[in-house]
Write a structure and sequence with these properties.
Blueprint (H helix, E strand, L loop, with lengths): L4 H10 L5 H11 L6 H24 L7
Helix pairs in contact: 1-2
Length: 67
Amino acid sequence: MERSRPEHLIDKLLSNELSKEELDELLAGLGEKEMSPEYSTILEHYFNQLLNENEQQTVMTPQRLKV
């Protein structure tokens, strides 16, 4: 399945591979009065994934005892 343009731009942004033209395109999409539902969905999915990874890491990492 081919990724959407907003998803492609966000992936490139997160991997620090975004060109100036792509950044301008991304900011134009985000700068609308009401963010495109597609951008909103992609960003929500990404941040939820980060939260889940952080939660799993916290559960898997033993807490150090404070003395």
